[in-house]
Description:
Elements: H1 8-13, H2 23-40, E1 59-61, E2 65-70, E3 86-91, E4 98-99, H3 100-110, E5 121-128, E6 131-137
Amino acid sequence: xxxxxxxxxxxxxMSIDTVDLDFDNYYENYLKLxxxxxxxxxxxxxxxxxxxLDRLDEVLINHHYGLVYYTHTCGCWIKNKHPPPTQxxxxxxxxxxxxxxxxxxxxxxxxxxxxxxxxxxxxTIDVRNNCIELFLSA
Length: 138
C-alpha cells in the first residue's frame, strides 16, 4: 500500500465483470424518488433534492425563524443585469424548529419565479446561523 491506496497492479488486474454496474436499477429508483417528491411538492420552482425525502421531518435549523437566501450569480445573467438575491424569512409561529418540510413548504410558497434561469437543480443547502443559502446547478 502506498499512502493508504492499493498497489496500482491490483487495480489493473481487476476485471470490469467484478464491479456491479446496475445503472438501470439505479435510474429506476431515482425516478421513483422524483415521483414521490413531485407528489408532495407538485409546484416546485426548481428540482428539489430527492435525498431529502426521508428527512423531511428532521431539523434543519434549531430556531423558529431563518432566512432563505439565493444569489443569482450564474452565467445565465451575463447579458442582463443579475437580479437581486432571492430571499425570504421562514418563521414558525408555534416557535418550533425549522424542518426540511418547513423549508420546502416555504420555498414553494415564496420563491420568485420571475428570476428563473437554466439553473434549476437544488445542489446544496448550506446552513450558517439562521441563514439557509441555496446553490443551484444546471
